[in-house]
Amino acid sequence: MALQRVQDGLAEVVSARADVPKVRERLAAAIVTAYRDGRRVGEIARVSGYGREQVRRILRANGVEPEGTRES
Q1: Which Gene3D superfamilies does this UniProt record tie to the protein (predicted)?
Q2: I need a labelling partner for 5 at 20 to 30 A (CA). Which of 20, 29, 55, 68 fits?
Q3: What is the tens place of the pLDDT at every residue in 54-66?
């Protein structure tokens, strides 16, 4: 019984890890959308928990070059 719970927990972890790339893609798309809707890099960073540079990297990786005047 207890070992079955361990195996079930391990299977759940493996499944969650498999979902991480898809979830990151959705988050990146949401970050790009927020930026294109006029949100500032700093605001996106605050809400997402990412640093500003990470937000900029995500934007650039998705074909968006952040403007220097919109960073705060």
Answers
A1: Homeodomain-like (1.10.10.60)
A2: 20
A3: 999 999 999 999 9
